[in-house]
Design brief:
Elements (H helix, E strand, L loop, with lengths): L8 E5 L3 E2 L14 H11 L2 H11 L8 E5 L2 E6 L1 H11 L8 H10 L8 E7 L2 H11 L10 H11 L6 H7 L7 H16 L5 H8 L5 H8 L2 H6 L17 H16 L14 H15 L88 H12 L6 H21 L11 H11 L4 H11 L6 H4 L3 H9 L7 H18 L2
Parallel strand pairs: 2-4, 3-5
Antiparallel strand pairs: 1-5, 3-4
Helix pairs in contact: 1-3, 1-6, 2-3, 2-4, 6-8, 12-13, 14-15, 15-16, 15-19, 15-20, 16-17, 17-20
Protein name: ParB/Sulfiredoxin domain-containing protein
Organism: Mycolicibacter arupensis
C-alpha cells in the first residue's frame, strides 16, 4: 500500500479551498484566484468544464488532493475542477468570460452543484509531488512559454482591468505585457475567423500553430498593413474587421505555416531580405484579388459591423476592454525588426478603423449561396421572414425560426420522396431520419452529425445542435444570443442548400 492511500479524506467547503498560485508558472508574484480562473477560462476551457458540471453533475471519482496551509487548504491536484465549481457559484472570478458562464447558468437553472467536496489531504507539498508526477507527465514544472504568458495576461483584461492595471500589478513583466496582449489579440482573431479548410482550422485551433512563429509575420509592418491589422498603444486591435481580400491573405499566411514553408527562420520574414519583399508582393496580389470591392461577402470571411447594417443601428465597437492610459506600444519580447503599428493610411483597403469582425455584429443572417426554389409556399415564406429578421434585435425569435425552417425543410424533403412523418415528431426525430437517409454521403453525414452532437461540447459547438435549438424554444430561462444564431445558421445552411432546392 502506498503512503498516499493512507492520506485522510475529508469534506471541505469550497470557500476553504484555495487554488494553487504556484501552479501558474509565471515569475510574477501576488497572484490571486481570479488570475488563475480567468487564465483557465481562456486556455483550458474552464467554462466548458463548468457547463459539463451543470449539465451532468459533479462526480468525485477522482478526489482532489490538497495540503493544509494558513488555516485553509491549497489544491494541489484538480485546480481546474475546483475553479469550475467556484466559478459556478461566483462567475465574476472569470473576468471577461463571466458572461459565457452566466449563459450556461440560465440554460441549466435547476442544477445543484456542491458547495462542499471530498478532498484527500497530503501531509505536505513535497509528499504530494510524486503523486502529481504520476498523474501527469512526471516532468518537473517548467516556466510558461511565451504563448502561455500571452494567454494569461490577455485573459485578465476586462471592463475593469486595463493594460495599465496589468503593468502596475506585474511590474517585472511590465515591458513585455503589450506584446503579450498583441499576441493574445491575434490568437483570438485567428480562432474567430471563418475557415473553408477544416484541416487548416484544426491546425490553428488545436494549437499546432505556434503563436511565437506567427508573431514573426504579424509584427512585420508591411504584412500587418496589407491585412488591415492595427494595434493601439495598449496592444489591442483597433478593429477585427477583415475584408474578404484580407481574409484570403490571412488564410494564405496560415496555410504557409501549416505546410511548413514559412517559419521563424524563413528569409521571407526577414525585412531586409529580398524574399520578404517578394512575400509582401505575393500577399498584396492575394489581397487585391477581391475585385468586387464588396466587404460584406460573409462567405469569404467578412462580417460587417453595425455601421453597415441595414437597420442603421449603432456599432457596439471593439471596446469591450478599456485601453487604459498611454503606454509602450512596442512591448518587450517581440521579434526584432518590428516597426510601429501600421496606421489607417497604411491599410490598402482603408478600413483599419472600422468595426469589429465578429459574427454577433451582423444584423442579418448570411444567405449567400442559398436561394430556395422549391414548391413549398410555407417554407418559402418562413425563409423570407428569416432573411429579413434583425437578429441583433430579435435573436431568440431568429433562433426559433431557424429551428422551424430546418424542421420544415426536412419534412418537405421527405414529402417529396413520398414519406410522411408521424404527427407530433419534432426536430430531433427529423434530424435522425435525415442522417439515416444520407448515411452513405460522407459530407452530409459530417454536417448532420454537427447538429446531432451530444456530450461534452464547447460553447461554439453547442450552438446549432438539436439540443440548443430545442432549448431556445422550450426552456423558459434559455435565451439565444445573436452570436448563437449566426453560429447555428452557419451549421444549418449547408444542409438546407442540399435538401431545400
Amino acid at each position: 500500500m502506498t503512503a498516499a492511500a493512507q492520506w485522510p479524506i475529508i469534506e471541505v467547503s469550497l470557500d476553504d479551498l484555495r487554488l494553487d498560485v504556484g501552479n501558474v508558472r509565471l515569475t510574477s508574484g501576488d497572484l490571486e484566484e481570479a488570475d488563475i480562473a480567468s487564465y483557465l477560462a481562456e486556455a483550458e476551457d474552464l467554462v466548458g468544464l463548468a457547463r459539463d458540471l451543470l449539465r451532468d453533475g459533479y462526480i468525485d471519482n477522482e478526489i482532489p488532493i490538497v495540503v493544509e496551509e494558513d488555516g485553509g487548504y491549497v489544491v494541489m491536484e484538480a485546480n481546474r475542477r475546483i475553479a469550475a465549481l467556484k466559478a459556478i457559484h461566483d462567475p465574476m472570478i472569470l473576468g471577461r468570460h463571466a458572461a459565457q458562464l452566466e449563459r450556461h447558468l440560465t440554460r441549466y437553472p435547476g442544477t445543484a452543484t456542491p458547495t462542499v467536496v471530498r478532498v484527500m489531504v497530503a501531509p505536505s507539498r513535497e509528499a504530494a509531488q510524486p503523486v502529481l508526477a504520476r498523474l501527469h507527465t512526471g516532468q518537473p514544472k517548467r516556466s510558461w512559454i511565451r504563448e502561455q504568458q500571452a494567454i494569461f495576461y490577455h485573459a485578465r483584461l476586462s471592463d475593469t482591468v486595463t493594460v495599465d492595471d496589468l503593468r502596475a500589478r506585474y511590474p517585472r513583466e511590465a515591458g513585455k505585457i503589450v506584446s503579450f496582449i498583441r499576441m493574445g489579440e491575434m490568437r483570438e482573431l485567428i480562432r474567430g475567423v471563418r475557415y473553408d479548410d477544416s484541416d487548416l482550422e484544426g491546425f490553428v485551433k488545436s494549437s499546432q500553430l505556434k503563436m511565437t512563429s506567427l508573431e514573426y509575420a504579424y509584427e512585420r509592418p508591411r504584412i500587418r498593413a496589407l491585412l488591415g491589422l492595427e494595434f493601439d498603444d495598449q496592444g489591442l486591435l483597433k478593429s477585427r474587421r477583415l475584408t474578404s481580400g484580407q481574409h484570403r491573405g490571412l488564410m494564405y499566411l496560415l496555410g504557409r505555416f501549416k505546410d511548413g514553408t514559412l517559419n521563424t527562420r524563413s528569409p521571407e520574414l526577414k525585412e531586409r531580405d529580398a524574399q520578404h519583399a517578394a512575400l509582401v508582393e505575393q500577399l498584396r496580389r492575394i489581397v487585391d484579388g477581391d475585385t468586387s470591392g464588396d466587404s460584406s461577402d460573409a462567405a469569404d470571411g467578412e462580417q460587417p459591423d453595425h455601421q453597415n447594417s441595414d437597420d442603421g443601428s449603432e456599432p457596439d465597437g471593439d471596446g469591450g476592454r478599456p485601453s487604459g492610459g498611454a503606454g509602450d506600444g512596442g512591448g518587450g519580447g517581440a521579434p526584432s525588426g518590428d516597426g510601429g503599428p501600421g496606421g489607417d493610411d497604411a491599410s490598402p483597403t482603408g478600413v483599419g478603423s472600422r468595426g469589429p469582425n465578429r459574427g454577433d455584429t451582423r444584423s442579418r443572417l448570411d444567405f449567400t449561396g442559398f436561394d430556395y426554389q422549391g414548391s413549398s409556399a410555407g417554407l418559402r415564406r418562413r425563409l423570407e421572414e428569416l432573411r429579413k429578421l434583425n437578429v441583433l434585435d430579435f435573436p431568440n425569435a431568429a433562433m426559433d425560426l431557424t429551428r422551424t425552417v430546418l424542421e420544415c425543410a426536412i419534412k418537405v424533403y421527405f414529402s417529396g420522396k413520398g414519406t410522411t412523418f408521424p404527427a407530433g415528431k419534432g426536430i430531433s426525430y427529423c434530424v435522425d431520419e435525415l442522417a439515416k437517409d444520407f448515411r452513405s454521403d460522407q459530407r452530409m453525414t459530417a454536417l448532420i452529425n454537427v447538429i446531432k452532437r451530444k456530450g461534452s461540447m464547447t460553447a461554439n459547438q453547442y450552438a446549432g445542435t438539436s439540443f440548443a435549438l430545442n432549448a431556445s424554444n422550450h426552456e423558459p430561462e434559455a435565451f439565444a444570443s445573436t452570436k448563437d444564431v449566426h453560429e447555428a445558421w452557419e451549421r444549418i445552411k449547408p444542409i438546407l442548400v442540399e435538401i431545400a432546392k
